[in-house]
Amino acid sequence: MSNYFANVPVVKYEGPKSKNPFAFKFYDAEKVIVGKKMKDHLKFALSWWHTMCGAGSDPFGVGTMDRSYGKSDPMEIAKAKVDAAFEFMQKLGIEYFCFHDADIAPAGNDFAETKKNLAEIVDYISGKMKETGIKNLWGTTNAFGHPRFMHGAGTSCSADSFAYAAAQIKNAIDATIKLGGTGYVFWGGREGYETLLNTDMGLELDNMARLMKMAVEYARSKGFKGDFYIEPKPKEPTKHQYDFDTATVLGFLRKYGLDKDFKMNIEANHATLAGHTFQHELRVARINGVFGSIDANQGDPNLGWDTDQFPTNVYEATLCMYEVIKAGGFTNGGLNFDAKVRRASFTFDDIAHAYISGMDAFALGLIKAYEIIEDGRIDKFLDERYASYKSGIGKDIVEGKADLEKLEAYTLANGEPKLESGRQEMLEGILNSIIFG
Ligand code: XLS
Ligand code: NI
Ligand code: NI
Fold first, then answer.
1. Vertex 387, ends 381 and 392: CA angle to 5°?
2. Which residues contact residue 410 at a Cβ distance below 8 angstroms, ignoring those fewer than 6 apart?
3. How many A from CA of 325 to the centre of ligand 3?
4. For residue 391, which of 379, 403, 401, 380 has the smallest C-alpha distance?
5. How far apart (Å, rounded) are the C-alpha atoms in residues 322 and 309?
6. 145-188, pLDDT tens digit by residue?
7. pLDDT of residue 239 exceeding 90
8. What Cα–Cα distance (Å) separates residue 156 from each residue in 13, 147, 148, 235, 255?
9. In DSSP terms, which residues pair with 241 in a beta bridge?
10. Terminal-residue alpha carbon distance, the chain
């Protein structure tokens, strides 16, 4: 094993009283909770882009972190990143990783060279995976960073840019299949618009669907059995992103007949950018049978952009895990930390602290979500709140045995509805008593 994270030991569970910054306080990987190990409930994944590549630059300043791992040749840097990534995952007990093609291998002078670089690094990663048992959660392509995608990729006005994106997707799918990934993500980085004055929205959406269909057909023809995901986000980098939120994406998938192959990769900070809660997005996915995977992070309520902070908010994590449990848990998906340390947290130690805090927050979230379910008061309240649909006229409505005339007759006979309190404050108190009790 390499030793890039020299101060970081193999991180162990020491319990809530531990003051060791390099120990888990709540995440006890092997502990069985309701029939499954914590690590299998949570399926934590490392995001290659933020963790191995992100150097801390922002619109006002250059990077503060050296991510060259002591090398200068781009392919050597890429291999050192692989060594460092596997060292980090082994030390933290993280069993999955997620990547963009561009994070793992450098671009060459032309597409053929880029393709060759990617294949070489994929082989190198493959070797490390065999040695360590670490797995790929999902892969994707970066079709938003390069100037050739300034107008979008699948939604570009340029058919050549569309073709280039398609070529990248083909190779990123090959890489994902080679690495045994169980998912392939579409995050519509620049699939949106800045102004409708220059945008043929209808053609752009049709083309985006065409590209996704091509990806599904190609991957399935190569034996890919995993899930495709769309990762909704309402804005940033474009003013309006087409994959605005889960509900919008569902409409798109159904219109183009893509709903059998695609699920959602829900990102916490994207949910809040869309004016929703994280739990809302998860709930919409769950009730529509398209819950797939999670990009775990958090934003800052005072900042209106995708700050991608490591998630430490236990309320959010608890309500998230409540939805995950109700959705039946993860199958092909998992919890990918699409999160980055702050610019001033520039040491390798900070990355470990960040993951430890995030993993502990979600471990607590898992424990507390099961406590909510075992306690039963919230689920019981919910059940009783809708009891009027279990018998009488409510049952008729649900079973399709009521029409407007019947309901008019019912109303004439029964008069004003008798309503009950929604008890929001009481329920919030129950939640607190479970989280802190
Ligand atoms: C950006 C997205 C991105 C995707 C992968 O906001 O979260 O990181 O997860 O392309
Ligand atoms: Ni993301
Ligand atoms: Ni994001």
1. 170
2. 393, 402
3. 23
4. 401
5. 21
6. 999 999 999 999 999 999 999 999 999 999 999 999 999 999 99
7. yes
8. 49, 12, 9, 17, 20
9. 192
10. 42
With tokens 């404050």, the residue in question is 425
Tokens of 408: 């008019």
Reference 52, options 106, 11, 93; nearest CA is 106
Q: Is the beta carbon of 267 within 6 A of some atom in ligand 1?
A: yes
138 CB-side CA count, 13 A = 30
Question: Residue with structure tokens 């393709």?
Answer: 115
- Does the beta carbon of 231 sit less than 6 angstroms from any atom of ligand 1? yes
Task: Read off the pLDDT of residues 383-415 as tens digits, 9 standing for 90 and up.
Answer: 999 999 999 999 999 999 999 999 999 999 999
Separation between Cα atoms, residue 401 and residue 250, nearest integer Å? 29
Q: Residue 95: CB within 6 Å of ligand 1?
A: no
**Which of 43, 107, 49 is CA-nearest to residue 366?**
43
CA pair distance 409, 22, nearest whole angstrom: 68
Instruction: Report how far residue 224's alpha carbon sits from residue 184's, in angstroms, rounded to the nearest whole number.
Output: 10
Q: Does residue 296 contact residue 337 with C-beta atoms inside 8 Å?
A: yes
Q: How far is the CA of 187 from the centre of ligand 1 (A)?
A: 6
Instruction: Report residue 1's pLDDT band, with 50, 70 and 90 as the boundaries.
Output: confident
Beta bridge partners of 47: 98
